[in-house]
Amino acid sequence: MCTAVDNREIIILSDDDDEDDEGCEQDVSCSEPSVVIVEVEDVKKSDCVLPPSALDEDLVVTFSRPAEVLPHARYDCPIHLFTATDCEIRAPLAGNQLICDQCFCYICDKLASSCVMWCHSGVCHCNSHKRSDFWKDIRNSTLLGGLKTFNLTLSEIDAHLRQAEMMLQCFRRELTVQFSSYLEGKRLEEYGLSILNHQGLIHDYTPVYESVSSFLNKADKQDGRAAAIMRLGAAEDFIQHFQIPGTFILQSSKANVAEAKALLLQRIVASLQRQMVMADFTAEFTHKLQDFYKRLNFPAPLKRMRNSLCVRPWDDILLVSVLKGQNLLGFRKDKGKRDILTEQISVVLLRTELLQHQHRYRELCRYLQVVQTDKPSRFQEVQDLIPFFTCMEGNFTSALHSLPSSISGTASRFTPNLFLTYLRIFETATAPKLIVSQPTQLCYSDAEWKPIKDAVPLKRAELVKFALRVQRCCSAVYQDSLCWTHLLKIVNTPCGSLSGIPAPSPEFLNNAKDVVYSILLDQSAYIHIPRAFQLEYPDQALLLLITGALGLRILTAALSPALPVLNTLKDNAWALRWLWDNLSSSADRCHAFVQEIEQELKNTTGSPVTVKLCSS
User: Fold this and answer.
1) How far apart are CA 121 and CA 522, in angstroms?
2) What sign does the CA torsion over 40, 42, 44, 45 have?
3) Which of 27, 226, 493, 520 would suit a FRET pair with 121, their CA atoms being 20 to 30 Å apart?
4) Interatomic CA distance for residues 73 and 84, integer angstroms
5) What span, in angstroms and rounded, lies between the C-alpha atoms of 345 and 500?
6) On the CB side of 305, how many CA atoms lie within 13 Å of its CA?
7) Taking CA 71 as the corner, what is the angle to CA 68 and CA 76, rounded to the nearest 5 degrees?
């Protein structure tokens, strides 16, 4: 039986990459073609009459034609046999120099006809093949060029890295010219100087510095991996520059070699650290960058920066366990050695930035609680943001607990503006939409305030407890008039209403003084408000508690300005009278307070309620 076949092409691929094929050491195996195309034409039944014995075969060849040869390496040429040896470079072996139109040079990766080293004695490319480590190394050196020093493989090279290598080569030529000019120096006259009997030279490193800076500016605009290679390549070139001693030295950090190199290296390190934390580099590529940096020959003044690129990858075992909450101590035993989560402050700031962008606030808090760093004072500012990050997670209760009331706690470092910011967050369950690295950034920002996901505003009693705790340990907040004004505005209206709070019974007012002072004078870590005190008059109880605290503040020292604070009570005259009765216990201080208000009234207009009270 013979079946007609449609016109089409059949592509036959040889599997000469099989590692089990040991025959490539012989001539025959290396002569097998890599790819051939067979065109199949229609064959009529009448043209192929098969004998009965052939009909029982599984495969019958009815037609064939010469294959079209595709581009291939010389050792795969189907026309000319190839003799394989490990490292013969002196002369062509047994016809290896013969080529067809489609033969490529394995080393140059271009047509063999255009390879200038094809039969060159000492580097005969015609003998090269992929089964030899010797020829593989030569191929890698040729194709990788300057990128070989980074231990990159051909599979890692892309168009961006090729461009980076070309830019590096041009930069190195330019840098050589600039540094040679620096070594020659310039006469004093060229700088507009003329000193009698002095013929010294000035060696100004500024042009070299500006050349490197210009190249780094170009690197900033490149693809991530290419930019990293360009930065490290530049560092390798300028790090060995040296200062020429001369009679005259320009007073500029850019003109001095040591200072200029430090500035340039700091810029490079900062950029690479950001890339290692922010970019999606593979762990292998990052490790190669770190190895290259460590191999640089650091002069003595820069040896302290040798470990600057020791940045843990995000998949580091210890770092992952800390972020997931599986490690609360920040260290682990690794092969008998103690591995401690210690990172440079610059890396800590970068991780803080990225985790905020990713809204991973809970992991960020875990990280900041255990990581150790080289600049404790700067790190303290970052740790003081833990309550804010906890708020952003929507957990206000935990945020309150992360504000210890001790003299060294986070709340003790509050400023009045920061206190008001937290007060607004807790009251409204909203927060400024911004990335922060220190608490002051929360206070002086025009960022839009957005609702916090899953957050519920604190009840008034909790707000009062928070405010009193902060006042207890932070004198700046306790002394500030604006803080008292905002706090009183929160408690001087009933929940869900804009009017004043009805006056409680006289008996409640009489008993409130003892309860309020017992709460305020209690020096325990947390503020405890008895349930019975809030049972009958919850809103009035909180107002009296803050009013009593205000009374103690007035008795302690002058409060200025006082009128805005007192005016918040204009709709609750009964609370104002209760405050005045408490102040009367100290006649001297009460008289002084009245005088302070009278002086303030001369410069501003107070509310009728306040004026009437002061006049009495």
Assistant:
1) 95
2) positive
3) 27
4) 13
5) 51
6) 22
7) 90
What is the DSSP pairing of strand 110-111 with strand 103-105? antiparallel
Write down the mean pLDDT value for the chain. 86
Q: How far apart are CA 482 and CA 480, in angstroms?
A: 6
270 in Cβ contact with 347 (< 8 Å): no
Count Cα atoms within 13 angstroms, Cβ side, for 372.
8
Give the range among 6-20, 299-313, 415-429, 448-462 with minimum mean pLDDT. 6-20
pLDDT in tens, 318-356: 999 999 999 999 999 988 899 999 999 999 999 999 999
What one-character DSSP code corresponds to residue 457?
P
For residue 500, the 8-state DSSP code is P
Q: How many C-beta atoms surround the C-beta of residue 267 within 10 A?
A: 16
Q: Are strands 337-340 and 331-334 parallel, antiparallel or unpaired?
A: antiparallel
534 and 542 in contact (C-beta within 8 Å)? yes
d(CA 114, CA 118) in angstroms, rounded, equals 8
Q: Dihedral through CA 88, CA 89, CA 91, CA 95, nearest 10?
A: 60
* Beta carbons of 242 and 257 less than 8 angstroms apart: yes
Q: Note the pTM of the prediction, 2 decimals.
A: 0.78
Q: For 367-418, what is the HEC assignment? A: HHHHCECCCHHHHHHHHCCHHHHHHHCCCHHHHHHCCCCCCCCHHHHCCHHH
Cα–Cα nearest to 387, from 347, 417, 341, 421: 421
- The closest alpha carbon to 63, from 47, 83, 82, 78, belongs to 47
**DSSP string spanning 162-206?**
HHHHHHHHHHHHHHHHHHHHHHH-EEGGGGT---TT---EE---H
Residue 409: how many other CB atoms lie within 10 Å: 18
Strands (E), 386-522: 430-432, 449-451
Compute CA distances 68 → 33, 36, 43, 72, 359, whole Å.
Answer: 11, 6, 20, 12, 59
Answer yes or no: are the C-beta atoms of 386 and 422 closer than 8 Å. Answer: no
Compute CA 478 distance to the chain's CA centroid, rounded to the nearest angstrom.
37
Taking only the tens place, the pLDDT of each residue in 246-295 is 656 677 889 999 999 999 999 999 999 999 999 989 999 999 999 999 99
Q: Tell me, rounded to whole angstroms, the distance of Cα 514 from its chain centroid.
A: 54
Distance of CA 39 to the CA centre of its chain: 57
- Report the pLDDT averaged over residues 184-200: 66
The CA distance from 168 to 328, in Å, is: 45
Q: What are phi and psi of 229, to 5 degrees?
A: -65, -40
SS3 451: strand
Residue 347 near residue 375 (C-beta atoms within 8 A): no
- The C-alpha atoms of residue 563 and residue 597 are separated, in whole angstroms, by 7
